[in-house]
Amino acid sequence: MARWTTVTLAEELHANQKRKASIVPEVPYLSHLMTVAGMVQEYGGSDVAVAAAWLHDSIEDTKPEANVRQRILTELRSHDMADKLM
Question: Residue range 18-42: average pLDDT?
Fold first, then answer.
């Protein structure tokens, strides 16, 4: 269940973003996050690592408001990983 929350949060944060260096125009940025999360999972990454892959660009690329940063940290804590990243 928590994984879908992570995906939903990533989707909300990157909703209107497009890939910059894409060969195909107008590719949603979420495709990058999906690719990274898929690779992490394929190579045996834990659920924590997969969640981190979905959210790895969230603060850097979206420059979220304080309440959104708190949502990201809450989501990371639900995977017991916030302390590992701080």
Answer: 87
Q: Round the average pLDDT of the chain to a whole number and report it.
A: 78
d(C-alpha 17, C-alpha 73), whole Å: 21
Q: Which tokens is 49 given?
A: 């690592």
Work out the number of other CB atoms within 10 angstroms of the CB of residue 5. 16
DSSP string over 72-86: HHHHHHHTT-HHHH-
Which residues are CB-neighbours of 79 under 8 A, at least 6 positions away? 2, 6, 47, 48, 51, 52
The whole-model pTM stands at 0.72
* Tokens matching residue 84: 């590992």
